[in-house]
Amino acid sequence: MDSHLSPGERSELVLKQLTLDEKLALVHGNGMSGESQWKMPLTPFTNGGAGYTQGVERLGIPPLIISDAGYGVRASGANGRYSTAMPSNLGAASSWDPESACQFGEVIGGELRAQGFDVTLGGGVNLTREPRNGRTFEYAGEDPLLAGTVVGNVMKCEQEQHVIGDIKHYAVNDQETGRFVVNSVISKRAMQESDLLAFHIAISIANPGAVMCSYNRINGDFACENSYTLQDVLKKDWGFKGFVISDWGGTHSTEKASSAGLDQEQPMADYFGLKLKEAVDAGRVPLSEIDDHARRVLYAEFLAGIVDDPPHKGVVNIEKGLEVAQRIEEKSIVLLKNNQAVLPIIPSKVHSIAIIGGHADVGMISGGGSAQVDPPGGNAIMPLGKGGTHWQDHVWFPTSPLQALRAKLPNTTIEFNPGTNLHSAASLAKTADVAIVFAYQWESEGMDLPNLSLPDSQDALIEQIAAANPHTIVVLETGTAVTMPWLDKVAGVVEVWYAGSAGHKALANILLGDVNPSGKLAMTFPKGEADLPRPLIAPLPPNDEGQGHFAVNSETRVSSYAVHYDEGPEVGYKWYEAQHTQPLFPFGFGLSYASYAYSGLSVDSSAKTVRFTLKNTGKRAGTEIAEVYATLPKEADESFKRLVGWKRVTLAPGESQDVTVAIDPQVLQTFDESKDTWMLTHGEYGVLVGPSSGNTPLRASLRIH
C-alpha cells in the first residue's frame, strides 16, 4: 500500500501474496446485469453495469466494476441515475481538439466514479474503413493520427479520474455484419499503417490500463486469441503493460487464448474459470502465464489509482456536464454549405422560420447499442413515463431545437411541421423567410446501414421544401456520412452528428452566429456507395449464425465469412485520392462565417517543422483548423498524402498569425513486412498545407537523408 512505489513494483508485491484461486479470480468476469444468459452468483455486484471481476479484499485490491461509456455512462436511467451524453465520438473528433477530447473524458470519468464504477469501456478507435458500419459514430473517423490523438486524450483524462481506461476494439473490427465471426483479411503492412497505427497513437497518449480485443478474426485467428496482434505487436513491440480484456463473449478457447495474450475473459468464466484451473493443474498452461495475466490486472488497478482511491457514489455534477457537452458540440458541428450567406440567421432580416421534420419540436436523435445513454425522462418521442431504453430503440434526447430557437428569437415567428405530409410541409416552408429541415439517420451496434441514404423518405421531403423555399437549410443528425441528392437545391447544410445532452443549445448558437462554426469532417463523405472500396457489404452465407453470441466456437466449426481489405492502408481520403475519385465532401472539410488565407510556407527539414502564415480575411472572429499533409518519396510507392499534423488557430478579423506545426516522424514511416519493422524512407517528401485534404494550396518539400 506504499503509494510512492511504481504500479509495477506494487503489483509485483501483491502477486507474491496471491493464491492460485485469487489469481484466477482476477482473470474472468462474473456475469452482466440484465442479460439472462450471463448470470453467475456474483452478478448482483455489477452495480447495474456491464461486468464484475472479484478483487482481493484481504490485500486491499478492489473489484472491477465495469460500465459501458462510449459517449456517456450507459443504463443510468434504468439504474435510477443520471449521466450526461457527450456529442458522439465522431462529432468530438470533428473538433480536431485534444483539449475538448480531454474534457469529454473528464466528465465521463467523473460520472462513472459518482455512479460507483471503476472501469470504463469507452475508447473506440477503429478507423472508418466502412462508413456503413453501425458503430461509426462511436469511433473517431478515418485517419490514424486524428483518431489516435482524439481517443488517446479522451482516455488519458478519463483515467486521470481514477477509472481504468480502455482502448477498443482491437483490431480491424470495422463492420458489424457477421461481427462475431467475420475474418478481416489484411496484410501486416496495411494493418500496421492504418488500424494498428491509430491504436498505437491512442495507447501511447492514454497509457490505458486495458485494451479490449474484438469479436472478429484477423487473418484467420480470433482477435482475442491472436498472438500477432496481442503478443508480438501490443505487448512486445509497444510495451503495453496493462491487461487485454475480451469483448463480451469474445473468448473462444482456454490454452490458445491464454498463450496468445488474452488476460481477462468477460463477462463470464467459460474458458478462464474452471477450464483454466484444470489446464494449469495438468501442466498445459504454465503458472507464469497466469502470473502475467494477474500482474497486468493489478498493474492497471495501481496505474489508474483505484486501489488508493476507489470510487465513492455521489451526485453527478449535471451543470458541468451540460456545459462541457455544449462547448464540445459547438466545436464539433460542421458547416458544409452556406450559399449566399444564408447563415448565420440575422434576426433583423429573418422574421419567420419554418422548422420541419426530424421530431425537432421535441428532441434530437442519439446513437444506439451499448453506447446508448439514457435520456432524462425517457425517450422524447415516446409516451411520457416510459422509462428505460432497449438495445436498439431509436432514442431522441429531450433537446428541442424548436424550443432553443424560440428562446433565442422571441420576436421571430417560428412554426413546426412534422414533415409527414409533404404538401403541408411545403406550404409552411413557402410562407417563411427561412426553412430549416431536420434530417436524421440512426445507427447502432449489432447492425450496419444498408446504404448511406437518409431513411424514411427524408430525401423527398428535402427536395419538396427546397422547391418551395430557396432559403432552405438542412440540419443533419447522423452517425456517419450521408448522400445528398438534393445538395445543389438547398442553400445551407449543417452536420450536427449525434449532438448530446445540450445539442439544441449548441446548434442554436451556431445557426445565429453567436458561435462561429469551426468543426471539420473527421471522415470523407462520398458521393455514393459505388465509390467505396466495397460498394456492398457482403451478406452472411446462408445458415451462418454470425450475429449471435457464441454462435461459432473455434473448437467446432469456423464461419467462412470474410472481408478482404485489399485497399490496405488506403482508408478514407487516401482511397479517394489513390482512385482519383472526387468525394461529396473531403476529409478535413468545414466552412466558417469567416474566411482564411494561407501563405508563406517554409519547412525546416532537420527539425521536421512546418511554418506558414494564416490570416482571417473575414469580418468575424473565428477558429481555423489548418491541416498539414505529406506525400512520401517515389521510392515508398504510395500514391496518396497522409495527415501529419494540424493546428487550431483563433483569429480576430484581419489578424494574421505565424503558425508552426511539428511533424511526428512516426506518421512519415512505412512498415517493412520482410524486416518486420518501421522504416523512414530517405528522399524528398512533399509538404502540403491548407483547409482540407481536398484543398492544400501551400506546397513545399522536406528532405530526409
From TrEMBL:
It comes from the Bacteria. Keywords: Carbohydrate metabolism, Glycosidase, Hydrolase. One of its GO terms (molecular function) is hydrolase activity, hydrolyzing O-glycosyl compounds. Pfam families: Fn3-like, Glyco_hydro_3, Glyco_hydro_3_C. GO terms for biological process: carbohydrate metabolic process. Residues 624-693 form the Fibronectin type III-like domain. The keyword Hydrolase applies. InterPro entries: Cellulose_deg_GH3, Fn3-like, GH, Glyco_hydro_3_AS, Glyco_hydro_3_C, Glyco_hydro_3_C_sf, Glyco_hydro_3_N, Glyco_hydro_3_N_sf. The keyword rRNA processing does not apply. Belongs to the glycosyl hydrolase 3 family. This is Glycoside hydrolase family 3 C-terminal domain-containing protein. The lineage of its organism: Bacteria, Pseudomonadati, Acidobacteriota, Terriglobia, Terriglobales.
